[in-house]
Amino acid sequence: MRSLLVLLAVLWVCDAVKFGQLCSGNPSNSRRTSDRWGQGQYGAGRGTRLHQGLDIKCSDGAAVYAPFDVTLNGKLTVYTDPTKAAINEGINLSGQGLCFKLFYVRPDRTSGTVRKGQRIGTMLPMQSVYPGITSHVHVQMCDKSDPTPYF
Ligand SMILES: *[C@@H]1O[C@H](CO)[C@@H](O)[C@H](O)[C@H]1NC(C)=O
């Protein structure tokens, strides 16, 4: 019984969905840790609320890639604040049974399917809005759950 449970645990871990490379220049999906604007992990403080995504490092202007085979479910606006217009775009995606959003990315296209590793858009100029921040793509699950286990 015990060995069966171990086997099932191993199979479950192997079967778990993992994000492939999201951003050119960051093949390991390394994460934003801490900078003058805050921290990148899920649940970090954001004034009166909590950070609802996970921040993956991505330089301004870098190419953003499909982390696995995905369907594009349209474009998003991130902010209502006009002073953040320069980075106010994102993409809604699904694949591997997950629905998720990428913020601060200008999509190349907003519908159809894209294979893992193909370009889906461009990282927007985050330094122009948040000088000194670790520029990043914000990954947020559509149900607001924690994306960290998928990285
Ligand atoms: C994202 O796409 C999914 C699947 O089509 C949809 O259910 C969801 O409402 C969309 N979310 C946003 C914010 O557009």
From TrEMBL:
It comes from Oreochromis aureus (Israeli tilapia). Residues 1-16 form the signal peptide. Zn(2+) binds at residues 51, 55, 138. PANTHER family: LEUKOCYTE CELL-DERIVED CHEMOTAXIN 2 (PTHR11329), LEUKOCYTE CELL-DERIVED CHEMOTAXIN-2 (PTHR11329:SF0). Belongs to the LECT2/MIM-1 family. Keywords: Disulfide bond, Metal-binding, Signal, Zinc. GO terms for molecular function: metal ion binding. This is Leukocyte cell-derived chemotaxin 2 like. InterPro entries: Dup_hybrid_motif (IPR011055), LECT2 (IPR008663), LECT2_chordata (IPR017381). Disulfide bonds join 23-58, 99-142. Gene3D superfamilies: Glucose Permease (Domain IIA) (2.70.70.10). It comes from the Eukaryota. The gene is LOC116324421. The keyword S-adenosyl-L-methionine does not apply. The lineage of its organism: Eukaryota, Metazoa, Chordata, Craniata, Vertebrata.
